[in-house]
Each structure stands twice: as structure tokens, then as C-alpha cells.
Design brief:
The protein is an alpha+beta fold. The chain has helices at about 10-20, 25-35, and strands at about 1-5, 40-45, 50, 55-60. The protein has one domain. The chain has two helices and four strands. A hairpin with a 2-residue loop joins β3 and β4. The two termini are about 10 Å apart. The mean pLDDT is about 65.
Length: about 60
Amino acid sequence: MELLKNQPLAIQRRVIRDFIEEKDFEKVELVRRLLEKGGKVYLGKGKTVWRKGKKLCINLGV
């Protein structure tokens, strides 16, 4: 699992763009708020978002 903020900006933008295309604005807000607060957002595989304790995990299907 890789931290989202450690990823290149292009990948970070793609994550957000994928959510916007799916019209999942709830996830967009969640991710944006977490990153602004310095929260940890992890990348996995697939296309879901889940919480694991205090971690937010995003599956991307990369």
C-alpha cells in the first residue's frame, strides 16, 4: 500500500478525476479533506474506498 501523497501529482489527480467521473463527490470531499488535514490516504487495487482504523484506503484498479 502506497501513501497517496507520496504518489506523483498525476496519479493524485487521476484518483480525484475517477471519483468525479463516477459522480462520487462524497469521496472527492473525503479525500480532499483528509489530505488537507495531513491524513494518510493509501492506494490499493480495485476501485473502492474504505477506512481501516484511522487510515483511509482507496482502491484504484491500477
